[in-house]
Amino acid sequence: MTPIDSVNVVWPILVTLLAPFGILVAGRNQNIREGISIVAGAITALLVISFAPAVLSGHIYRYELFTILPGITISFAVDGLGIIFAFVAPFLWVFATSYNIGYMRSLKEHAQTRYYFCFAIAIFGAVGVALAANVFTLYLFYEVISIFTYPLVAHHQDEEGFYGGKKYLVYLVGTSKLFLLPAMALTYVLAGTLDFPLGDIQHGIFSADVIAAHPNLVRLTYVLFIAGLAKAALMPFHNWLPSAMVAPTPVSALLHAVAVVKAGVFSVSRIILSGFGTDTMTSLGLSLPTAYVAGFTIVAASFIALTKDDIKARLAYSTVSQLSYVIIGVALAAPMAVQGGLMHIGHHAFSKITLFFGAGAIYVASHLKSIKMMNGLGRKMPWTFGAFGLASLSMIGMPPVCGFVSKWYLVNGALDQSQLVLLIALLCSTLLNAGYFVPIFYRAFFLAPEPGSHIEECKEAPLSMVVPLVFTSVVSVALGLFPELFLNFIKAFGQFN
Predict the structure, then answer these.
(1) Could you tell me which of 149, 349, 168, 186 has the C-alpha nearest to residue 271?
(2) Are 266 and 85 in contact (CB under 8 A)?
(3) pLDDT in tens, the chain (497 residues)
(4) Which of 465, 467, 437, 423 is nearest to 374 (CA)?
(5) How far apart are CA 168 and CA 326, in angstroms?
(6) Which of 31, 32, 143, 158 is most buried, taking the most CB atoms under 10 A from its CB?
(7) What is the 3-state secondary structure (H, E, C) of the chain?
(8) Which residue(s) pair with 67 in the sheet?
(9) 100 close to 34: Cβ distance less than 8 angstroms
(10) How far is CA 274 from the centre of its chain?
C-alpha cells in the first residue's frame, strides 16, 4: 500500500495550533475565548473525518513537512488507526469546553485564560501524536502534551497541586528522556530510519537482517519504548495518574479520556504494531511478557480502586486498569485481540469522560467527593447519575454499552491464543469493575441520605455540564450498538477481513 502525498493532512494540525493563540488574544472575553475552543474542535473533527471515505477504501495519506536528517523528518499521515484518535480528541474537546464553562464559572476558578490555552495546546499535541508518521514526530508531540498539561494539573497553585504537578512532570518527562530518547536513537542506528511502514502491521521498522543480527538490541529498544511511554500507566509507571487528580475535574477528564493517557496507549499501539510489527513481536518473544504485565496491571489497579472512597481516586485507578485492555489486545497480536484493544481506545474515551464529567457535576452541585456521603444523591441528580450508570456499565463490560464489544473481542483473542491466564484476568476485572462501580449507583438511588447531610438541598449542575455528560453516555451506547463505526477503520488499518 503506497501512501499518497497530500498537504491536507496538515490542516487539522494547523487549526489546533492556531486555536490556543486565538484564546490568548481573546483573553478575559469569556464567550469569545470559549467559542474559539468549540469552533476549533468542531472544525478539526470535520477535517479529520473528511479523510474517512479514502481511509476506509484502503488509502493512506502522508505529508512530509521538512527533513532534519536523512531518515529523520517531521511528517504526518492519516491511516485507520490515526484517524480514530485524531477524531476523538477534538470531538470530545467540543463537549469538554461546554462542560468547562459550567464548571469553571460556577466555581469562579482563577486563571481561566491560561487554563483554556493549555487545554487547547494539549489537544494540539494529541492530534499531532495521532497523525505522526514516524517516531520522531510522535515524540515531539508527546512531549508537548506533557509540558502543557503540567499547568493544568497544578492549576490550584497550592501545596497539593504543586506536589501532584511535580510528580506528574517527573514521571512523564523523566521517563521520556531516560527511555524514549535512547530507544529512538537505537532505532535510528539499527534501522537507518524512524518512519513507520504505514499499511504494514506485520514487519515494522526493523528489517529481517537487523533482527537476525541484533535480536537483543531490538529487544532492548522495545523495552525502552514501553518504559518511556509512561502515559500508558502500566505498572509500575502508573503513580503519576492518581496523583494528578488534584487537578480540576475537567482536567482529569482531559487526562483520562481525551488527550494524555489516550496518547500513551495510542503511542504504545503505534510502536507495537507499526514500529515493531506482529511478526517481530512474536519472533522475539515480546508479545506475552507485555500482555502479562498489562494483565497484572488490570487486576492490581482494580483491587486498589475497590479501596478508594474518593470518587476521582476510584476513577483514576479504574483508568489505570482499563488502559491495559488496549495493551493486552495489541500485544497478543491475534486479529480479534488487536481489534478489541484498538476499539477500546475510542470506547473508553467516551465512557470515561462521562464518568469524570459526572464526578465534576456532583462536586459542583453538592461539593461532595466521598462516595459514602452520596446516599440518595441520585434522586436529586437523576440525569447525572443515570449517565454515570450507563458509563459504568461500559467499564464493567455489559451490553449494549460499547465496553462490552471491546471485551468480547479481547476475550475471544485470548481464547484464540489459548491464554488462560489472560482470560482469567479479563473475566476477574469484569467482576472487580462491578465491585467498585455498582455501589456508587446503589448508594445514589437506593440508600437514604446520611443524617445531617445537605443532600435534600442539592439539584442538577448547570445545563452546560449536564448536557455534555448525557450526550457522551448516549454515544457510549450508540458505539455498543454500532461498533463498526470504529471497527471499520481498524480493519482498514490492519487489513483484517
Answers:
(1) 186
(2) yes
(3) 667 888 999 999 999 999 999 999 998 888 999 999 999 999 999 999 999 999 999 899 999 998 988 888 999 999 999 999 999 999 999 999 998 888 888 888 788 899 999 999 999 999 999 999 999 999 999 999 999 988 888 887 888 878 888 888 888 888 888 999 999 999 999 999 999 998 889 889 999 999 999 999 999 999 999 999 988 878 888 887 877 777 777 777 777 677 888 899 999 999 999 999 999 999 999 999 999 999 999 999 999 999 999 999 999 999 999 999 999 999 998 899 999 999 999 999 999 999 999 999 999 999 999 999 999 999 999 999 999 999 999 999 999 999 999 999 999 999 999 999 999 999 999 999 999 999 999 999 999 888 877 888 899 999 999 999 999 999 999 999 999 999 999 999 988 87
(4) 437
(5) 22
(6) 143
(7) CCCEECHHHHHHHHHHHHHHHHHHHHCCCHHHHHHHHHHHHHHHHHHHHCCHHHHHCCCCEEEEEEEEECCEEEEEEECHHHHHHHHHHHHHHHHHHHHHHHHHHHCCCCCHHHHHHHHHHHHHHHHHHHCECEHHHHHHHHHHHHHHHHHHHCCCCCHHHHHHHHHHHHHHHHHHHHHHHHHHHHHHHHHCCCECCCCCCCCCCCCHHHHHHCHHHHHHHHHHHHHHCHHHCCCCCCCHHHHHHHCCHHHHHHHHHHCHHHHHHHHHHHHHHHHHCHHHHHHCCCHHHHHHHHHHHHHHHHHHHHCCCEHHHHHHHHHHHHHHHHHHHHHHCCHHHHHHHHHHHHHHHHHHHHHHHHHHHHHHHHCCCEHHHCCCHHHHCHHHHHHHHHHHHHHHCCCCCHHHHHHHHHHHHHHHCCCHHHHHHHHHHHHHHHHHHHHHHHHHHHCCCCCCCCHHHCCCCCHHHHHHHHHHHHHHHHHHHCCHHHHHHHHHHHCCC
(8) 73
(9) yes
(10) 18
Identity of the amino acid at 315: L
Q: Cell digits for 429?
A: 476485572
